[in-house]
Amino acid sequence: MNSYKVSRSLFGEEHQVFRKSVRRFIAEEITPNHDRWEKEGQVSRELWLRAGEQGFLCSSVPEEYGGVGADFLYSTILLEEMAYANATGPGFHLHSEIVTPYILHYGTEEQKKKWLPKMIRGECITAIAMTEPGAGSDLQGIKTTAIKDGNEYCINGQKVFITNGQMADLVIVACKTDPAQGAKGMSLMIVERNDEGFERGRNLDKIGFHAQDTSELFFENVRVPTFNRLGEEGYGFVQLIEQLPQERLIVAVRCIAQIEAALNWTVDYTNGRKAFGKPLSGFQNTRFKLAEIQAELAVQRVFVDKCIELLLDGKLDAVTGAIAKMKTSEFMCQALDDCLQMHGGYGFMAEYPIAKAWADNRYARIAGGSTEIMKEIIGRDLTGQR
Ligand SMILES: Cc1cc2nc3c(=O)[nH]c(=O)nc-3n(C[C@H](O)[C@H](O)[C@H](O)COP(=O)(O)OP(=O)(O)OC[C@H]3O[C@@H](n4cnc5c(N)ncnc54)[C@H](O)[C@@H]3O)c2cc1C
Question: For each of the chain's 386 residues, which pLDDT tens digit applies?
């Protein structure tokens, strides 16, 4: 029983219909295969094609490029349902909600027509490569270069921790086109699977996300036509900064759904398991812990839903996005740890969803801008300090 009554006002009838079809897709196409993909280190290409057939990829793309022109609420539903199902392997969110907006916002007509239809169908899987072994939080410090040579750029460098790294057919690569210029010398280049000199390194061995092909990428004298530059030369850093609020909201949406799922698993578990002659939920400590999670979840969900509204109105700013990501990811990690604790030893067993969620979601305090970087964004804005 859960009598909490602050209902969400974001979704209409059509969204509920969409949610049902997403839930069915996950139950039929993802959940039965996820364990196998975890052992194989990546999901199947067929899954991407199936998701494309169902219209679940790049749903924000307008009809003229083969999409359905749906709003961010549809993406929200997909993110939430994937979190409820602990489906961390498919990198759909990165492809649809992070890479696609770059091509939509900064691509030329020719670029959009060339790549978006294949991305929508799941025939072209994408990634975005910013982080390098020597530069993560400090993006201005990247060393990968793209030096202009006639009608081409010559790309040299290395990237690490790249989501969809093994499967990607198209990678947006953050490069220095003018290494002497710092942030103003950065541009975004598109590199494709078969470009000569583009090699994939290891599918990295992680503590979680075992079905996600997070990888190293290497670029050695990769020559791409100037056609492959996304937007103006020297505007790469500005483009990255412009897209970050949406990327951070995506993490926040996922965190809230993950906490909700963990809370439900833990209520069921503590009602069912007995110790000292009564259910675990019969102990005040268990009820207090569950109540704390429920109360914080209720408050944070309202804030995140407000951020979704702001994004829909084109008004989500960097500071608000940073607050959403920081608060939800910090709370999620605490809540998952508390929920695991309430499962006792079973919480440490991989077959229990709480164990997988605990390991998989630790990334959220680091990736997409760490908690410390979120605090910098918020604190600098407050004080005016640089
Ligand atoms: C699962 C996963 C998927 C990822 N996917 C992608 C991807 O698809 N594409 C991509 O480009 N990257 C990806 N990343 C990389 C991710 O964005 C970086 O790991 C992140 O930005 C942090 O960079 P770093 O690892 O180099 O850590 P560092 O920048 O070296 O930071 C190390 C520590 O120092 C702290 N720190 C750094 N600077 C400051 C400061 N100014 N003040 C206070 N503390 C500071 C950080 O908060 C952190 O705690 C992924 C990472 C993971 C774990």
Answer: 677 778 899 999 999 999 999 999 999 999 999 999 999 999 999 999 999 999 999 999 999 999 999 999 999 999 999 999 999 999 999 999 999 999 999 999 999 999 999 999 999 999 999 999 999 999 999 999 999 999 999 999 999 999 999 999 999 999 999 999 989 999 999 999 999 999 999 999 999 999 999 999 999 999 999 999 999 999 999 999 999 999 999 999 999 999 999 999 999 999 999 999 999 999 999 999 999 999 999 999 999 999 999 999 999 999 999 999 999 999 999 999 999 999 999 999 999 999 999 999 999 999 999 999 999 999 999 999 97
Q: How far is the CA of 165 from the centre of ligand 1 (A)?
A: 17
Which residue reads 């609420």 in tokens?
Answer: 73
Q: Could you give the count of Cα atoms lying within 13 Å of 100 in the half-sphere of its Cβ?
A: 29
Residue nearest (by alpha carbon) to ligand 1 atom 29: 137
Q: Measured from the CB, is residue 163 less than 6 Å from ligand 1?
A: yes
| pTM beyond cutoff 0.85 | yes
Residue 276 alpha carbon to ligand 1 centre in Å:
45
- 332 CA to centre of ligand 1 in angstroms: 18
Measured by CA distance, the residue closest to atom 23 of ligand 1 is: 136
CA gap 366, 360 in Å, rounded: 12
- The CA 372 to ligand 1 mean position distance, Å, reads 10
Buried b (16+ CB within 10 A) or exposed e, 89-105: bbbbbbbbbbbbbbbbe
Q: Is 81 a catalytic residue?
A: no
* Whether residue 363 has its Cβ less than 6 Å from ligand 1: yes
Catalytic-role residue among 123, 196, 247, 372: 247
Place of tokens 């398991």: 273
Q: Cα dihedral sign for 185, 188, 193, 196?
A: negative
Beta carbon of 214 within 6 Å of any ligand 1 atom: yes
